[in-house]
């Protein structure tokens, strides 16, 4: 799994994830999320799931963990470039009712 964190000009941060957000992938992702919420200053955060083709309960748990920690500090979390199976599971579990979710732009 590859994780890239990019500080944005508006003071927020973008996290790009490439790889499956399953148990194995999230074991690599969780320390990154822990570090994001352990600092003094938290940022509004956007996660790009363009490179994520599979999401299971471990991935949902990691996203919800980050959402709850950010929200407790008055910060927001949004998901962008969500497509395929990850979008299906997010809609099925109604995660999109709590977290802003934007679908991937189709290139057709």
TrEMBL record:
InterPro entries: STAS_dom, STAS_dom_sf
Pfam family, one: STAS
Domain STAS: 2-108
Top-level taxon in the UniProt lineage: Bacteria
A GO molecular function held by the record: anti-sigma factor antagonist activity
Alphabetized SUPFAM superfamilies for the sequence: SpoIIaa-like
Name of this chain's protein: Anti-anti-sigma factor
């Amino acid at each position: 799994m590859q994780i890239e964190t990019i500080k944005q000009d508006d003071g927020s941060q973008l996290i790009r994830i490439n790889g499956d957000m399953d148990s194995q992938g999230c074991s690599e992702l969780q320390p990154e999320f822990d570090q994001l919420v352990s600092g003094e200053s938290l940022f509004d955060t956007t996660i790009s799931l363009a490179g994520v083709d599979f999401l299971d309960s471990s991935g949902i748990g990691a996203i919800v963990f980050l959402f709850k920690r950010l929200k407790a500090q008055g910060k927001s979390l949004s998901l962008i470039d969500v497509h395929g199976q990850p979008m299906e599971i997010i809609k099925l579990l109604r995660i999109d009712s709590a977290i802003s979710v934007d679908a991937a732009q189709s290139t057709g």
